[in-house]
Design goal:
536 residues, two-stranded antiparallel sheet
């Protein structure tokens, strides 16, 4: 920066303060969520929140503003300590910095050097000036402000020195603890600056979890918000929008790398968790299983074990109230609500009835389950975000938001479509009751969604359409060529027709008729063209 003779000659610009941007985004997103939770809170919590807001504002108005910034009165040590605590409750940083910026605002009022220039928009004053940091000559401007009187005030300097500890105590711990401790309410998140999030009482929560029924199939479960996942989804979508605006600054290499990671993550779900482990549509060599496990870790979708368990539960109770991804509900419910809520009631009993013995015998899956946290940090966060900055000079901000956030968000929704697709494209699982065209479409595998729920173990049954010619099917056939995969299960339309006829005669489901083993073409003896990388 050019050195000028006088501090008043300095001009400064502003750049985003990443930490404060994230704080503001989180506060506003969680604030919206808190509004929906207020109906569950007691009147005492509401009154206590208003009282804390008043104390925080008092600390700023009577304390930082009138007492310390403008010296409009003098105060006894006890009052100064009280006002300092009130300012800590507000969570607005140190009194020293607040006074410094406010005096700077008065000194250069209405000029380009005013950090809160009233000639700019309300949006700029209320938001942008708070989430950006001045750069250029701003430090020199601050040095020209007389702060000697404030520096002589022991209360202010004590708060400046121990701000972090005081903030944690007075802005976080004490306000959040009081409603839960004094009114014996179970809290689900923080109350901060008017953001109230109180869950139902312990008795209400217990009534959901203590229901005991005789048989797993008799269990009915409801869903309650999973606060951690709700916050994750809200933040991902808000930051994902911000990432879209940053894409214009990113290099083409970052864009290509992001698409590649999305493909790897989806491959880990489709070829790995879905077709290999959930439906056993083929067997895989240890090297392929490790590769697919890493791909699934890149997607960041939790453990393979839990994904397979919920997907098998989805197939077992397809279209019923026990189906965690019931296609009779809305797309919004399938794609979002089913992901951000946790089942309560009899859900654990339902899961116990699902046979997971084959998955538990797979060392790769159980390794990923045991060390998921470490693998997630490495493959879903550190390596993807580090690569653009390390190898082609991408800025850390673009790496975090485009590769870390936006890529993760897109992958999340694509993998969620595996269950949502039955709603989007339609599925008539009980096809024996459908018309002739529906039967023909299923036999010819044009109604690929219904076909998947009839024969889920067919390795060519694509998650998103185009039976047999999709990227995942081609990948599996390629792995078979190089001896990494074998025992690929599939069948032809003639066999499906026979199974449908048997179903009509025996009154068994088509799936049960197929599952006796006589129809599954493991060796491709009836379907040799599946060996080609692209089917004719």
């Amino acid at each position: 920066m050019a050195a000028l003779k006088d501090a008043t000659d300095y001009k400064f610009s502003r750049e985003n303060n990443f930490v404060v941007v994230m704080l503001y985004l989180n506060l506003h997103v969680m604030g919206v969520y808190a509004l929906f939770l207020m109906k569950n809170a007691t009147i005492y919590t509401f009154i206590f929140g208003l009282f804390l807001i008043w104390l925080g504002v008092l600390g700023a108005t009577a304390g930082a503003h009138r007492l310390w910034a403008h010296k409009s009165y003098t105060a006894d040590i006890k009052l100064r300590i009280f006002l300092m605590i009130c300012f800590c409750i507000s969570g607005q940083g140190t009194i020293y910095n607040w006074v410094l910026e406010h005096r700077l605002h008065h000194k250069y009022f209405g000029t380009k050097k005013d950090p809160f220039n009233h000639n700019k928009s309300i949006w700029n004053l209320q938001i942008l000036s708070r989430i950006t940091r001045p750069v250029g000559g701003y430090d020199k401007l601050k040095e020209a402000v007389d702060m000697s009187d404030v520096e002589e005030d022991g209360v202010v300097m004590f708060q400046k020195k121990y701000f972090a500890v005081l903030y944690i105590i007075f802005a976080l711990l004490l306000p959040v603890n009081a409603p839960a401790d004094l009114t014996k309410i179970k809290f689900s998140t923080t109350y901060q600056r008017g953001l109230v999030t109180i869950s139902n009482s312990l008795d209400t929560a217990r009534s959901h979890t203590m229901a005991a029924l005789k048989d797993a199939t008799d269990y009915k479960f409801s869903r309650e918000n999973n606060f951690v996942v709700v916050m994750l989804y809200l933040n991902l979508h808000v930051m994902g929008v911000y990432a879209l605006f940053l894409m214009k600054n990113a290099t083409i290499y970052t864009f290509i790398f992001g698409l590649f990671l999305i493909w790897l993550g989806v491959l880990g779900a489709t070829a790995g968790a879905h077709r290999l482990w959930a439906h056993k549509s083929y067997t895989a060599d240890i090297k392929l299983r490790i590769f697919l496990m890493i791909c699934f870790c890149i997607s960041g979708q939790g453990t393979i074990y839990n994904w397979v368990l919920e997907h098998r539960l989805h197939h077992k109770y397809f279209g019923t109230k026990k189906d965690p991804f019931n296609h009779n509900k809305s797309i919004w419910n399938l794609q979002i609500l089913s992901r951000i809520t946790r089942p309560v009631g009899g859900y654990d009993k339902l899961k116990e009835a699902v046979d997971m013995s084959d998955v538990e015998e797979d060392g790769v899956v159980m390794f990923q389950k045991k060390y998921f946290a470490v693998l997630y940090i490495i493959f879903a966060l550190l390596l993807p975000v580090n690569a653009p900055a390390e190898y082609w000079g991408e800025s850390l901000r673009e790496s975090i938001f485009i590769i870390g956030i936006l890529r993760y968000l897109i992958t999340l929704h694509l993998i969620s479509l595996i269950e949502t697709s039955s709603k989007i494209w339609g599925c008539s699982y009980n096809i024996e009751n459908d018309n002739d065209k529906k039967l023909v479409d299923t036999i010819e595998k044009m109604d690929w969604m219904t076909y998947h729920y009839i024969a889920p173990w067919d390795y060519q049954s694509n998650e998103f359409g185009f039976y047999g010619n999709d990227v995942t099917s081609v990948f599996i056939r390629l792995c078979e060529r190089i001896k990494l995969a074998n025992s690929l299960k599939t069948m032809d339309g003639h066999i499906i027709g026979q199974a449908i006829q048997m179903s009509m005669v025996t009154n068994k489901s088509v799936t049960d008729c197929l599952n006796d083993g006589q129809f599954i073409d493991v060796g491709h003896t009836k379907f040799q063209q599946s060996h080609s990388l692209i089917r004719s």
